[in-house]
Amino acid sequence: MVHLSQKGYTLIETMVVLAITTSLSVVGVASFSNQIAHNHLTDAGRQIISDLRLIRQKVIAEGIAGPIQFHPDGRKYSVPGIGERTLPPQIRFGLREGVPPLPDAVLPDDGISFRENTITFQPNGTITGLGGTVYLTNDSVHHETVAVSVVTTGRVKIRKWNGNAWR
Fold first, then answer.
1. Backbone angles phi, psi at 56, to 5 degrees
2. Who's near 121: CB < 8 A, 6+ residues apart?
3. pLDDT in tens, 10-68
4. For the chain, how far is it from start to end, CA to CA, in angstroms?
5. How far apart are CA 143 and CA 136, in angstroms?
6. Sequence spans of domains, the chain
């Protein structure tokens, strides 16, 4: 009598492997989406810093004052000689609820504490006024906020809210 050996997997085994694979895929996609949103926020902060430093250097070299105007309603800002920059999707000016402003800083309604939402660099590299902060937040990631500050001397600094403190 000839016995045929049974090779392969049962339907139950296949369904269990498929369920585990699907679960891992869902977790991976969610994690990947959060990472993309985090990168959008970080990139937006870095782009603003880069533009501020570029304009400051241009103003010092050319000797002509250069204003950068922020438009919070349109999620844009204007850079002299470059044009308008638009924030990435899901990124906006402002603070998330529950995130405090930087220590010793004014809490702006629109996320920009510069007078008339404008930073003007002078030919000596300083800015007009007392300085201020531009807050960026990501609507899709809980507690992620970035603050880009410029002080009177023209120094530009970025800080991130980690859920407990500004770093």
1. -60, -45
2. 55, 56, 59, 60, 65, 66, 67, 68, 127, 154
3. 888 888 888 888 887 777 666 666 777 778 898 999 999 999 999 999 999 999 988 99
4. 77
5. 11
6. 11-161
Distance, in Å, from the CA atom of 79 to the CA atom of 51, rounded to the nearest integer, reads: 7
The residue assigned the tokens 């006024």 is 129
> Length of the chain in residues, anyone?
167
The dihedral of CA 47, 50, 53, 54: what is its sign? negative
Angle at 22 between CA 17 and CA 28, to 5 degrees: 125
Give residue for tokens 């609820």: 97
The amino acid sitting at 130 is L
* Contact residues for 151 (Cβ-Cβ < 8 A; gap 6+): 127, 131, 157
How far does Cα 62 stand from its chain's mean position? 30
Q: According to CATH, what is the number of the domain 11-161?
A: 3.55.40.10
